[in-house]
Amino acid sequence: MMITGLHTVVDIFCIGCGSIVGWKYEAAHDKTQKYKEGKFILERVKLTGPDGSNYLETQEAQVGGSDLDDA
């Protein structure tokens, strides 16, 4: 059970260290949440870049703006 209703999820884990880094929505039991099925959530604080640096620190400079800015 999540805030948005009942969902069936599976863990996503790192094959390198075995840590759980997120989850994937397998099924949504509420019709209004069906759009989530097959989508996944990755927790940035648990990810590292290819060089071993913290993903959040290296990528934060590239994140910004919105779709409305492009219109």
TrEMBL record:
Keywords: Metal-binding, Zinc. Residues 1-51 form the Yippee domain. GO terms for molecular function: metal ion binding. InterPro entries: Yippee, Yippee/Mis18/Cereblon, Yippee_fam. Residues 50-71 are annotated as: Disordered. Belongs to the yippee family. This is Protein yippee-like. The lineage of its organism: Eukaryota, Viridiplantae, Streptophyta, Embryophyta, Tracheophyta.
